[in-house]
Amino acid sequence: xxxxxxxxxxxxxxxxxxxxxxxxxxxxxxxxxxxxxxxxxxxxxxxxxxxxxxxxxxxxxxxxxxxxxxxxxxxxxxxxxxxxxxxxxxxxxxxxxxxxxxxxxxxxxxxxxxxxxxxxxxxxxxxxxxxxxxxxxxxxxxxxxxxxxxxxxxxxxxxxxxxxxxxxxxxxxxxxxxxxxxxxxxxxxxxxxxxxxxxxxxxxxxxxxxxxxxxxxxxxxxxxxxxxxxxxxxxxxxxxxxxxxxxxxxxxxxxxxxxxxxxxxxxxxxxxxxxxxxxxxxxxxxxxxxxxxxxxxxxxxxxxxxxxxxxxx
Length: 313
What we know:
Elements: E1 14-15, E2 18-19, H1 21-33, H2 36-43, H3 47-61, E3 66-69, E4 72-75, H4 77-101, E5 108-115, H5 119-133, E6 137-144, H6 146-155, E7 160-163, E8 172-186, E9 201-203, H7 207-216, E10 225-227, H8 230-240, E11 243-247, H9 248-256, E12 261-262, E13 269-278, H10 285-312
Parallel strand pairs: 5-6, 5-7, 9-10
Antiparallel strand pairs: 1-2, 3-4, 7-13, 8-11, 8-12, 8-13
């Protein structure tokens, strides 16, 4: 029996029976950087390797994907049409690898990415709730910053991201989970007017937080020491002394331990928290269940914080 016609470029994507996912990774990175040198640096390969991968992919698809000129690298019409399919291929590949590598005792493994600054105050409570509500599931928990978490969700490495600053993308579903409270504390009794910028550690948890802080406290926004890490700010406060904004739970804990005290006339700032998930997962029951549980926990914690603040007045 005669074999069906063989497309000349097929081995580029399926070589030796194995999916050449590095071709897809290279294509998607070039879609973002539009620069062969930059993509080579990010992927840890040579520029000639990047060029070779693009040529292999173009050969397999029998079309040009990029157009290079003095003004830079641009997607062709075929490249733009292939981009969505490439993301789908990448996501499907990651999902397949996760499925075959899942712990045998777990019927489902859910991968959760959490903003660094939420871990100390919230992770334990959230995980206890999630494990109780989804006892048949296994969990993988990753801690990172918003941009990387959004990238991992987009590429299929994470099922759900809990972030301060979501990165908009056509393939991502972004939902509000509520707000977390952030309070100013000081190691030396003082009102806001008494705190000098030189004694203040400027928090930069997220662009929205920083903008609100600058509007409410313009003088302190000129502080010379700044950090976007809650752990760094807390550590500086305990080691050096001064004033800063911490998540309400941490501020209350340190105050109860006698390490600092609230600044009585400082405004409380709220930081929005968002969930990020791939569009493919937006209607799946386990993902919706996780969203509901975490949103409920944030709402309950906000109510408790408000009551505690009212009692302290």
